[in-house]
Design goal:
alpha/beta; DNA Cyclobutane Dipyrimidine Photolyase, subunit A, domain 3; 3 domains; 6 strands; Crypto/Photolyase_FAD-like_sf; Rossmann-like_a/b/a_fold; Crypto/Photolyase_N_sf; Photolyase/cryptochrome alpha/beta domain-containing protein
Length: 462
């Protein structure tokens, strides 16, 4: 169960520091104690060098907090870190958490490390941390991919046009990457190390109360963070949701969703672990498994491809393809059938009952079914004074309320509303040749049952 060689990138190609006190692992994107290739590699190297392993996490706070993150996001993150800390310490891995950026804590603790191991994410802010670390740390720095099934550059060396261009590339490769990952035994426990840790995430709400951040969007009850909770949800999905997923995934009332997206966003479960479990599931048929793996691997990794190869993926002028910008500009002065302010949209105060319900689900519970997300985004474009304003509104509302906001999927899905990974369609007002979505799309599922389900979910949050 070796870690695939394509998962490795050496960022500082020097020998491990002689006399180092430990192997350091920066827990940043893969916030879990199991099925984590970066952690398992750190343990392998610790065993080889005769050293303990220390995992560290830098908690951004106040003015230096993670962009657009609020109490909702931090509560879920901290719940996951409490779970990760317990799992790491049970395995004999040390855990240090401080108020610092990921780069700051890695550079500081890296001064005594024989080797520094990083996991990987594809957002611009993450790339900047990795670059800062590689320049400042004087020992060997190795990055190990554990956030996607197939590492982005291995799957493709360029920005892909659409799912149909990336899909065959992934299909050729992913069998080699969907492999079990055994937990390595820690031969040198970290119990004897005396490393000060400013924060103990074992009480997530206590840590949250001591932070300076946006508390207007609060924690949710619908989702509890952590790899333990992620596996419970996955097990329930495989038992009750996978069978019929192929036909039911586009019907929000069908309860066919796995709800893995928040856990994947915060790195609390591995996509490879999910793929293995889906592949081995007794319930469901090949169509169900294929439909789920399409979402988990092809669609999710198309998003990673987009943010990795697009500088300015969060800006309208950079993220939206030229043909779409041109046709939207040609229709920018078309009269809008309805016009709403951003505050009205966020509050769900439109004429469209079903849109308002979808917005309520997001605002109150931190989640919205993907079928509704498409309709939701297209209507913001239709009801905004210009395409650029609509793009910016959609992204801000998305990132503020969704638990999995500020994610490669979020940036990509919002840009899709405006033509990314799509083709020209029939011309119409406001949209030009960008794909339009009407109220008729609501007829594809039982909208009244969806409304009742959301009302129940929102009531449970009170």
């Amino acid at each position: 169960m070796a870690i695939h060689e394509k998962r490795f990138r050496v960022l500082n190609d020097v020998a491990p520091r002689k006399g180092g006190a430990y192997v350091l692992y920066l827990l940043q994107q893969a916030n879990r104690a199991h099925h984590n290739p970066a952690l398992e590699y750190a343990i392998e190297e610790g065993n080889r060098l005769g050293l303990p392993v220390v995992a560290c996490f830098g908690l951004l706070d106040g003015a230096n907090g993670f962009p657009e993150a609020n109490a909702r996001h931090y509560a879920f993150l901290l719940q996951g870190l409490a779970d990760a800390k317990a799992g790491l310490e049970k395995r004999g891995v040390g855990f240090v958490m401080r108020k610092a950026s990921p780069a700051e804590i890695a550079i500081d603790l890296g001064r005594e490390a024989a080797l520094l191991v990083l996991d990987r994410g594809y957002l611009a802010i993450q790339k900047s941390w990795y670059g800062e670390i590689a320049k400042a740390v004087e020992t060997r720095v190795v990055q190990v991919e554990g956030d996607v099934v197939v590492p982005v550059e291995t799957a493709s060396s360029k920005h892909e046009f659409a799912a149909r261009t990336l899909r065959p590339k992934l299909h050729k490769l992913w069998a080699d990457f969907v492999e079990p990952l055994a937990a390595r035994k820690v031969e040198h426990k970290a119990d004897g190390l005396k490393l000060p840790s400013e924060i103990d995430p074992s009480d997530p709400m206590k840590v949250l109360a001591g932070m300076t951040l946006d508390t207007d969007v609060g924690p949710v009850k619908r989702f509890v963070g952590g790899e333990t909770q992620a596996r419970k949800r996955l097990k329930a999905f495989l038992k009750d949701g996978l069978s019929g997923y192929g036909n039911g995934r586009n019907r929000p009332e069908a309860a066919a969703a796995s709800h893995m997206s928040p856990y994947l966003h915060f790195g609390q479960i591995s996509p490879v672990e999910i793929a293995l479990a889906v592949r081995a599931a007794k319930d469901g048929d090949d169509d169900d498994r294929g439909a789920y793996l399409e979402e988990l691997v092809v669609r999710r990794e198309l998003a990673s491809n987009h943010v990795f190869y697009t500088e300015g993926y969060d800006h309208y002028a950079k993220a939206v393809p030229d043909w779409a910008q041109k046709t939207l500009a040609e229709h920018a002065e078309d009269p809008r059938p309805y016009s709403y302010t951003e505050a009205q949209l966020a509050a769900g105060e439109t004429h469209d009952r079903y849109w308002n319900v979808a917005q309520a689900e997001m605002r109150v519970t931190g989640y919205m079914h993907n079928q509704l997300r498409m309709y939701w985004g297209k209507k913001i474009l239709e009801w905004s004074p210009s395409p650029k304003v609509g793009f910016e509104r959609t992204l801000r509302i998305n990132n503020r309320y969704f638990l999995d906001g500020r994610d490669a999927n979020s940036f990509t899905n919002v840009a899709w509303v405006y033509g990314l990974h799509d083709r020209p369609w029939a011309r119409r007002k406001v949209f030009g040749t960008v794909r339009y979505q009407s109220e008729n799309s609501l007829k594809k599922f039982d909208a009244k049952s969806y409304v009742k389900a959301v009302e129940t979910l929102c009531a449970a949050e009170k």
